[in-house]
User: Fold these one by one.
Assistant:
Number 1:
Amino acid sequence: MISRITSYDQYKTAYERSLYDADNFWAEVAAGYHWRKMWDRVHSGGFEKVDYKWFEGARLNITVNCLDRHLESFADKTAIIWEPNDPDEAGRRLSYRELHREVCKFSNVLKQLGVTKGDTVCIYMPMIPELAVAMLACARVGAIHSIVFGGFSAQSLSGRIQDAECKLLITADGFYRGDKAVHLKNMADEALQDCPSIKNVIIYRRSNAEISIMAGRDLFWDQLMASASDQHEAEIMDAEDPLFILYTSGSTGKPKGVVHTTAGYMVYVGYTFLNVFQYREHEVYWCTADIGWITGHSYVVYGPLLNGATTLMYEGIPAYPDWSRWWKIISKYSVDIFYTAPTAIRSFQAQGEEHLQGADLSSLRLLGSVGEPINEEAWEWYHRQIGKEHCPIVDTWWQTETGGILITSLGGVTPAKPSFATLPFPGIEPVIVDTNGVLQNDLVAEGNLCIRRSWPGQARTVYKDHDRFIKTYFTTYRGMYFTGDGCRRDDDGFYRITGRVDDVIKVSGHRIGTAEVESAINEHPDVVESAVVPIPHEIKGEAIIAFVICRGENEATDQARAMQQLEHEVIQTVSKTVGPIAKPEKVYMVSGLPKTRSGKIMRRILRKIAEGHPDQTGDISTLLNPEIVDEIKRMVAASMPAK
Ligand code: WT7
């Protein structure tokens, strides 16, 4: 079994050892897993050549560690509790034995369809147990899963399928988010119009919505499963074989297909889950993230299952049928550990405490936060109203690229501090640099956050584009992984993450690239150019503001209406191209954008104005078109609520 750190002193010892005796440290952690063949080398390579590897030479299958390994000791323990969107529909429980059986059967289905080791499979599904079954079956047969969040548009789905050249798509007819029907299969059909790599589509019937079927291509989950054998020998993988691709947004270009490999990811995610949440055998753990994000991959599915935990999956949204739903779920299943995002906490806070009445939250032992900085007020509310002042809160900082949690307290074991992620996890060596890359060695420091050495769960590459991987993360500061986040270290040595320092926006914890939104806006036929910037938002953390130059003159009388119409269309275009989560909060139609003499858009200036600090734009005299700044200031001021 994987080992647990149980005191602050033990953490300090483990942390020190993880740095000066790293190979032995990780070898001991890894010994807690099941290997078909042990590794030849714990770790090799590094950030200079970006060729780091972990547990090279080892052979294993991650699903043997998630499932088969637990069958001896607790086959009947619940692996997944599933709570449907509709509170009147019956929930489901899958024991480790049942989950293993489903995964074996679906592995045989995949095999039968010709899916083999190294193939890429796209999964576009609602939050139902079959999503976990599908991903685990991919891992079991050695196929690389690429899960696309159900809230992404057909176009986003299509781009991801094309980039990864997926052979198979696994989806559902549709599902309900609250009282809103989501037509997944229709979106998939639209996406597949230009995805020649897809040979088959497997459809799980969830909503019984009417769908169109393409004969020969489309197959039904239940029919395939009906005749599948439940015996399946897991494909044995090399340590560094890819496990999955997950697309994420950066400051430039299209989303990147971040690649995680098998052994290092498994060791890291399993070990962090156990230690950060201090999971104990009988506990029910609920992480509210969608499996379509890294949090769902690592801490709804892989991390909990590697530890034989009971993990809860909820299909719906927080406010359905009303704002008391989450708390009712916690009461219903006696949830011990609850892990969610600050944006959700702030929404609940805004709704008032009456929604908590009648819910029994006494089962809770530990709370977690992830996805964006948590402000002190939200932290305090979470601590008081949900944790009843006795549950430790772990503020976990990490990223899609890091595979697992890097900076955090260990629940109840190491100290916590509101709005601080606090201390690095064993094996993680964070450093703070200034914009020139100079290390800030004083205890109290502020700057950009980098990580100085590799850890097992680190992403290895961008799918089919290692150069982009190197360029994005390893060239800003030589020999270091650059996180894209700003941070501060206080006199306790605790880290506080202050937010992105690049062109990445965190809207309700969702990661959105400015370039992506701008290129979507520019698809509108009347748009000449656009720039988007984040502004602070009380609930969402950040919101997107767009500045758009349009072509064409309108009759003066109709101008206001025409603008309104255009604003609406621009928002719709983003929704359709990227997904509803990337919709701008507000669109300003401008006649120009502030640019440098070399033609670069000065987003910094737009951001200051949009934030309501028009006096902080700094020196604009060197701009190509300084006069535009006043126009934009006037326009934004006119639309701001009077103070
Ligand atoms: C970015 C990564 C990793 C889980 C989900 C997000 C921000 C994440 C925290 C935190 C402050 C945080 C950072 C990071 N972030 N957790 N506890 N405190 N900021 O993964 O979508 O890859 O986003 O989320 O800005 O770089 P992601």
Number 2:
Amino acid sequence: MAKKLTARAGANIALVKYWGKRDAALNLPAAGSLSITLSGLETVTTIERAPGLQVDEFRLDGTPQDAAPVGRILDLIGSQDRVRCRIDSRNNFPTGAGLASSASGYAALVVVADALFERGLERRELSQIARRGSGSAARSLYGGFCRLHAGRSDQGEDCYAEGLYDPDHWPLEVVVAITDRGPKAVSSRDGMNRTMRTSPYYPAWVETVDADLAEAEAAVARRDFDMLAEVAESSALKMHASALAARPGLLYWNPATVACIQAVGRLRGQGTGVFFTMDAGPQVKAVCLPGHAEKVAAHLAEVPGVSRVIRTGLGPAAGLL
Ligand code: 2P0
């Protein structure tokens, strides 16, 4: 029995967004989502058995944090009376700025806990447990292209992530334009709860997701970039529209976010294979056809307010190191 194990997981970016829940306690999403898992932005998590501890200890990027949320996930994989643990998690990208650190974080956590507690759970089950920590985390269990099924059952047995294609099916590239390094003002969880409670556009948003999923999945299957660009940009803008219409409204963008969106539009108009998406933060993610990322990165780096661009590609499933 290992004393200490380490796993890594890549961040993911949804092309058809998740925004809203059908059950807050079980963290069941109101609709499905479709994502790409990234290679360059990752969390590496080590768990060490620590029988001498009374409570779990959790450090994120070296800083002690409340261990209760990760402890609850370990309880689901081990048991309530499992050994206490020391959990050390590191991101190689800014935490809490709309780059889905909770997704790679919980995905790495469940992979390493499954191995440490010798459970041998199926990926599908691990995706369901990761979802309890963070909805988007279910998708980081898989590499390449992934779909999270919302399901209908009360207990969420039919809510799970499924790998669609490995990265080599269509090795898209991604440029992340960092427009603000600080943590976001309103977390995804609070933002989507407020949208659900107060936005008159929330029901309309949820109603459109299934059609977007079907279209995006077909576009990925056929490697139809224009089709994927159209549905992904629409999904992102609809998600933000529902959030903007909450009370008080949720505006995650800054002027550089808008400037990047416009720059991406100009590039595509000139024949570059690129489309944008944004999450619950001000960064812009530009998804590029293979071979187009260099030009896109050079353009976005020149947009006023962009402090840095990160170039990455599609990455593998979460796994032990
Ligand atoms: C997504 N986001 O599909 C969407 C788009 C942000 C915007 O999933 O409450 O941290 O922990 O389930 O997973 C971020 O939300 O939310 C997210 P919880 P999570 O990527």
